[in-house]
Specification:
heterodimer; A: Immunoglobulin-like; 8-stranded antiparallel β-sheet; 6-stranded antiparallel barrel; B: alpha+beta; globular
Chain lengths: 583, 125
């Protein structure tokens, strides 16, 4: 029988192995590999049993998905490039019973009553429609092939006939295959049992004993026949079609398909608000990222310092401005009363006494001259001189009093917000000590340390820890090294709300070096569990495919995809993180 | 010698189906100077002259199919507006009249319904 002569034991081994392999060899051929002939119109069947049959069509402007639901057809229309839903379009559908219009439903879909779905030939597995879409100024005609749910009865009959012809062996192998596929330990045990029986038979045959061999064979036959009977009994619930009776109808769940793509039905896409962008290749200038921190604009901030040492007192309003209080330029913030030393005090007392004495003398002289002047005994000149002297002395006396009492007024040099306050009533302030710092929160700068000289024209952005990014304008760079780097200053142009002075930021400044690639928003790149960066390409109306990419930083909001995505691919730029969670 | 003959035969066996496939490529000019597109099991050729729409049906081997029993609808975009043209069998093809002049190469879709009731459509860009 065989050209090679084997000894009994290896032959037994071979027979047993062949028995093991048989069910796998008889595995039905994957229907996807079967050639369907010359039929371009039929839509591909859904891969998963939990996805309802559907059809999709797309043009350069629109993407359309149609799902038969009972006696109606539900249509979803989106923009092709961005994935934005279009809810106010006009959809004229060429149906088997003439043209009809799909009505917009409140959930953003369109509904086309389809009584002809029920009347169709049960053999039809798909339906060809033509949909004319008018959305604003865009008009397109889309041929749409919709897969239809299989009619249950004919399929079952067909399957039964098939089984009649192929007999119990096929039923048994299919049963075993399914049990293997379901990782049933029983199937494995049966296979192992067969293996052991084969070994036993061969061993007994070699020993030349006929009767036990016969007994073992009879035992094996009984087992096989029993299993066949069992398989026939179980056939009803091992059939996919009849099993469908127990499985709930397809619910269209977002899922990761066996081929690695992610299926997301249109309603879920809208829930996750997935948006795409057609990736285009272009040249971008490379950016360097620099550590930086926020500083106040030197022209829009100021400090309030006391020029003399003295006791701090609140302004006439009675309270010191608190942190965060908005102040106007020139507003009084505090008063400083300089202390008078003891020796100065005695000096002043002495001077006061002298002045009081002189004032008294001159006062009496003025009184006397006033009486004598009308009579001509004293000249008018003498009277005037005495009066001037008295006035001068009184001024000096009052100035001495004022110096003792008048404090220094501390005013705000610029308008802004109190960023720092060190004022406590009664506190002694040293000369030159900062009492308040005023910062205009709308005018902030960023100071960054750069290791290479930046060109003044270079555009830069600052990225915050919370992901926000701010546009920056180059202001200037120092020449003196600081930690082997030069300080570079940028003005924040917009979005300075909520920033703190001293906060750390990452400055991304463009350099002269240019690199080519596809610029995508930062949110479109997702890091997978194995640490690889991927983007999701929108390959079909409801299919997304993860594509591994190599990325380089570009600026605060975008990253540069250097490899992995072809230009023209629709890449998910919004909701990629949510898409990655689909299992 | 035998090996060489065998190799030639093998090369032919591989090349012939490829050639045939290329000969069957559907885009391009048809027998009547129109455009050809796939529609289900058929190939259809669209010719527009003024207001007249003419659609010729071929089978998979580019042999003309009699239009008897066929119905058809052409929806063509002309000047940003869709024009619906009903096609009826006439002589060797399906014809119909549009309400306005269609221009040289209007884009759109032609849907044909065969005698068995199965519809198929072809897209012209």
């Amino acid at each position: 029988m065989v050209p090679f002569r084997l000894t009994a034991a290896p032959r037994a081994l071979a027979v047993a192995l062949a028995l093991l392999v048989l069910p796998f060899l008889l595995n039905p051929i994957d229907p996807a590999q079967a050639h369907e002939g010359h039929d371009h119109g039929a839509p591909q069947a859904p891969v998963s049993k939990t996805i309802a049959p559907r059809g999709e069509a797309s043009s350069s402007a629109f993407e359309l998905v149609a799902i038969p639901r009972g006696d109606a057809l539900v249509l979803y229309l989106d923009r092709f490039a961005t994935g934005e839903p279009i809810t106010d379009a006009t959809l004229e559908v060429e149906t088997p019973s003439g043209p009809a219009r799909a009505e917009a439903a409140p959930d953003g879909s369109y509904r086309l009553p389809a009584p002809w779905l029920a009347k169709r030939d049960p053999k039809d597995d798909h339906l060809d429609l033509v949909v004319t879409v008018t959305a604003g100024s865009d008009v397109d005609v889309l041929p749409l092939a919709v897969a239809l749910p299989k009619a249950a009865e004919p399929a079952e009959a067909e399957h039964a006939g098939e089984h009649e012809g192929e007999g119990w062996l096929h039923a048994l192998t299919e049963h075993l295959t399914e049990r293997f596929a379901a990782r049933d330990p029983g199937a494995g045990l049966a296979a192992a049992g067969g293996f052991v029986l084969g070994l036993a038979t061969m061993g007994l045959m070699r020993a030349g004993r006929r009767a036990p061999v016969l007994a073992v064979l009879v035992l094996a036959a009984t087992l096989v026949l029993g299993a066949t009977a069992f398989a026939h009994e179980g056939a009803d619930h091992s059939h996919p079609e009849s099993r469908a009776a127990f499985v709930p109808p397809p619910t269209d769940l977002a899922q990761r398909l066996p081929d690695g793509t992610v299926f997301v039905p249109k309603p879920t896409q809208r829930l996750l608000s997935l948006r795409t962008q057609v990736a285009a290749e272009a040249g971008y200038r490379r950016t360097v990222s620099l550590p930086g921190r926020i500083i106040p604009d030197p022209n829009a901030s100021g400090v309030v310092q006391s020029s003399v040492g003295g006791r701090l007192a609140p302004p006439p309003s009675g309270i010191f401005p608190r942190l965060g209080t908005r102040v106007r330029p020139g507003e009084v913030l505090a008063l400083v009363t300089p202390p008078v030393q003891r020796v100065d005090l005695s000096d002043m007392r002495q001077r006061q006494g002298e002045l009081d004495q002189q004032i008294a003398i001159v006062q009496r002289r003025v009184d006397r001259y006033l009486k004598l002047a009308p009579g001509g005994a004293v000249s008018q000149v003498q009277l005037d001189e005495a009066q001037d002297e008295l006035k001068g002395l009184k001024d000096r006396r009052s100035a001495l009093d004022r110096i003792r009492l008048e404090p220094e007024v501390l005013t705000a040099p610029v308008g802004g917000v109190i960023a720092e306050a060190a004022a406590v009533a009664g506190q002694m302030a040293n000369p030159g000590q900062m009492v308040f710092q005023i910062v205009d929160p709308a005018k902030l700068w960023v100071e960054a340390l750069s290791f290479d000289a930046l060109t003044p024209a270079a555009d830069a952005t600052a990225r915050l820890a919370d992901g926000r990014s701010l546009p920056l304008a180059y202001q200037g760079a120092g020449l003196a090294d600081r930690n082997q780097a030069i300080p570079v200053q940028f003005a924040i142009q917009a979005g300075a709300e909520g920033l703190r002075v001293g906060q750390f930021v990452t400055v991304l400044a463009a350099t002269d070096a240019e690199q080519r690639g596809l610029a995508l928003p930062r949110a479109s790149v997702v890091r997978t569990a194995n640490g690889q960066d991927v983007v999701y390409a929108h390959t079909g109306a409801e299919r997304y495919e993860a594509q591994a990419v190599r990325v380089a930083p570009l600026d605060g909001t975008r990253i540069l995809v250097e490899a992995g995505v072809k230009p023209g691919t629709r890449v998910v730029v919004q909701g990629a993180e949510l898409l990655d969670q689909v299992r | 010698m035998l090996i060489r003959r065998f190799l030639t035969a093998a090369a032919l066996a591989i090349a012939l189906p490829l050639c045939a496939h290329h000969a069957c490529a559907h885009e391009g000019a048809g027998h009547n100077g129109g455009r050809i597109a796939d529609a289900g099991p058929y190939h259809i050729e669209l010719v527009t002259k003024g207001k007249t729409v003419e659609v010729t049906i071929y089978d998979a081997k580019e042999k003309p199919v009699s239009p008897a029993g066929f119905k058809g609808t052409a929806i063509l975009v002309v000047g940003g507006k869709p024009a619906r043209v009903v096609l009826t069998p006439a002589a060797a093809r399906l014809t119909g009249e549009a309400e306005m002049a269609l221009g040289a190469n209007p884009k759109g879709v032609v849907q044909i319904t065969g005698p068995d009731g199965a519809a198929a459509s072809g897209k012209f860009n």
